[in-house]
Amino acid sequence: MKQEPVGLFEKYFIIWFRIVTERIWTGDKKFRNTSIAIFLFGVLNVFLLTGSVKDFFRLGEAAVYDIPSTLYGLNDKGEYEPIAEYYKFSRIPVKLEELKAETTNYSTDNRHKVIQCFLSTEDNSFYSHNGIDLKGIARAFVVNIMAGRVKEGASTITQQVARLKFLSIERSIARKAREAWLAVLLELVYPKDKILEVYLNEIPLGHGTIGVGAASRFYFRKEVQDVTWGEAAILASLTTRPTQFSPIVNPVSSMNKVRVVFRKLVENGRMTVADAEKEYAALEEYYTNLNRSPNDSAFSDRLNRFPYVTEYIRKNLIRSIGSSRLYNGGLKIYSTIQIRHQEEAEKALLPALQKQTLESNQRAFRNIDAFDDLYGSGYSLIADLYDLPEFKFKISRTERTFSSAYQEDMRDEFYALNLLTGDDYLGDTIEKNYNSQNTKDHLLPVEGSLIAIRPETGYITALVGGSGFRSDNQQIRPFQAFRQPGSAFKPILYAAAMDYSGKNPDPEKNVTPATLFADSPLQYLMEDGDEWAPENYSSEYSGFILLRKALEQSKNSVAVRVLEQVGLSHLMESLRGLLQLPGRDIPYNFSVSLGSFELTPYELTRAYAALASGGKTVNPISVLYVEDNSGNVIKDFRKDYEDVERKQVISKEAAFLITSMMKDVVEEGTGRGVLSYGLNRKAYGKTGTTNNFRDAWFVGYTPELVTSVWFGYDVGTISLGRGMTGGRLSAPVWGRFMARALEKEPAKEFPWLSEVKVTKRTVCRMSGKLPGGQCHDLLEEYFIPQTVPKDVCNDHGSAWNVVESKPQPQSTQNTIEKKKPDTKVEKKPIQTKPPKRKKSVFSGDEEIDY
């Protein structure tokens, strides 16, 4: 049998014990020595059970409170203003000197009424004992013996402080012994007033409140300094069983316990009977007007102006500083959120989502009896064979049927009839039902996202994550919703293509705003034999069209041709640099040009921010720095932000060109809805609508701010409805937000414009070439110097030398090799059997009617 090795300490202890034993049993005073040894060993055992050397070092923690942390945002004056609090329990520390003496002549004790109430009920001899009240212990022992149960406690306020700060709530002799030991130590270290102050700030008083400061604000909506005698008595009545004696949960029990508090005040000479009756009667108004939910808690009262912002920052801070420090450290968190921007974001997006929920009218699945109808009889047999739990509903089918019928068919009629009868009780009942369960509950909510970022600093100024932050809707969609961007991806693709052309000029393949492409149907034969045919939104085509106009009208066929002309492998480096997708990569297929792969709104907005920054990457940041309760900076996120290099992923010239093209989208194209709310500055952006109207986007910027707006269902296969495009849904919300958020900010130009080196040339609007003698419809266009067209438009009647894919013979089709960087097109004859036609991956979003 393997034995545990004996350590050096054990060997020394054995030797020491042997020496002590020999000394006790040698000599003439064996009995006395034995008695002393037994006593000393008894004292040692008691100390080891009740005390510890560590206790002497922990006493300093008694006066340290767990304080909520505060999140700050910037107001219009550039000053930080609290917008949220982080805590699990509400605590508002109160200093004893803040509780001013009473001016009434109720007793010789003129301390504040809250102090008198707690002393009378918890420890009337607090200022005369040394931490342990022996008389109180004896009295409680007799009372409990006579009652046959624990009716009265004997813990002093000091003992309660020791338990609240260092011990658990278990009932045991060992815990009571340690409580007494720690109480004695506390009395040796702290003055009485400090111990009482700690007690008033640490005692739990129900509904998530810790201490009299938080409890006073929760129960009475006032500061503890301003409470009445009756309200102070209510606070003192909550120390033993806060839930049972809560005035909100059990008003009757609360009134009875408050009567006990006033009796204690009378017994201890702090109040006369007449005064006690007068103050107790004054409480009647409080209980009469008390109309609050029993489930109400201080947590719901916490400051939380912008829940999505609060939750997003909370998750990030927990990873960097830990949850305990966040909830209890009294931290001051300085964020980049601008209060005006956040308020306007919620005002713009949330009503639009509610309206769209009704308009899209997609109903949640309600045929919950289908399983029971189809398989209910067989389930019992399967349950017996495999020991499955019983299949049952919480309410019967009759109740479900009546509830649904009442809610949808009868409730409005009942409400109208009640207006005639005037029955208050019936009216209140119907109103309560409207608030708790309305028709919209049967509709799937249209969700959305709005995120705004400063392009120069990366500061996130506004963030809305959905239709409303609730217990069942806490997804922060700007960061967690992976959706297909559709046509909103085209500016990123075109910017990368123009950047490549500027760095690798080729007169036959250059992509510029004036490059002419064919807007015509496309068909590609895939490796699996299926056919891919990208289509425009309206299934209409414009023939030859300039790239600038193609973006304005969101032509899908042109986007595919741009990618085919330049080659996906040539654009990958720029696309990766703009999107910044660590751990993920861009698929190698032509559907990328139509935004077929998924991005979060945050990732897409960050890519547009790079365009707004002159082609330089942006590193968004939401929290600047965090201070502790003493004002010391414990975490400076600005340093982390500055350490990340901002890379020039595309040229300033390419960023300038795509920006000028998106200006036309807003003024003449699919993004005209942006101007609905009177945006008084230049704006640049692009709409996006995915196949079957599942997602509606608008992403754009001004020199001051980059913002994205997304509409869609969480279930990505559900349509928003016919015609619900980005131009119709998202663009107006974007315009309203930008107009209101930037209302007080002066308009400015992009700071990088002075460094842009572009050439301005007059070209033929029809061909994109330098104008010839017969060209009368001219256009001034910007070019990267290396890509200025050299061909002259000679004859409008002849076939122009356009930059496009060469037409294929009728007997051949383009074949796209999946997941391969090589963009060479392999030609294969069409099979005799017609291939299966694959529906368009995406439809464009050119707006037909505004």
Describe it.
Pathway: Glycan biosynthesis; Cell wall biogenesis; peptidoglycan biosynthesis. It is found in: Membrane. In the N-terminal section; belongs to the glycosyltransferase 51 family. In the C-terminal section; belongs to the transpeptidase family. One of its GO terms (cellular component) is outer membrane-bounded periplasmic space. This is peptidoglycan glycosyltransferase. The C terminus is likely disordered. The N and C termini lie far apart (89 Å). Among the domains are: 54 residues, no CATH class; 214 residues, Biosynthetic peptidoglycan transglycosylase-like (Penicillin binding protein transpeptidase fold, Orthogonal Bundle), CATH 1.10.3810; 86 residues, no CATH class; 35 residues, no CATH class. The chain is built from 28 helices and 21 strands. Helices cover 41% and strands 12% of the residues. A 5-stranded mixed beta sheet has the order 2-1-5-12-13. It has 850 residues and is of the alpha+beta class.
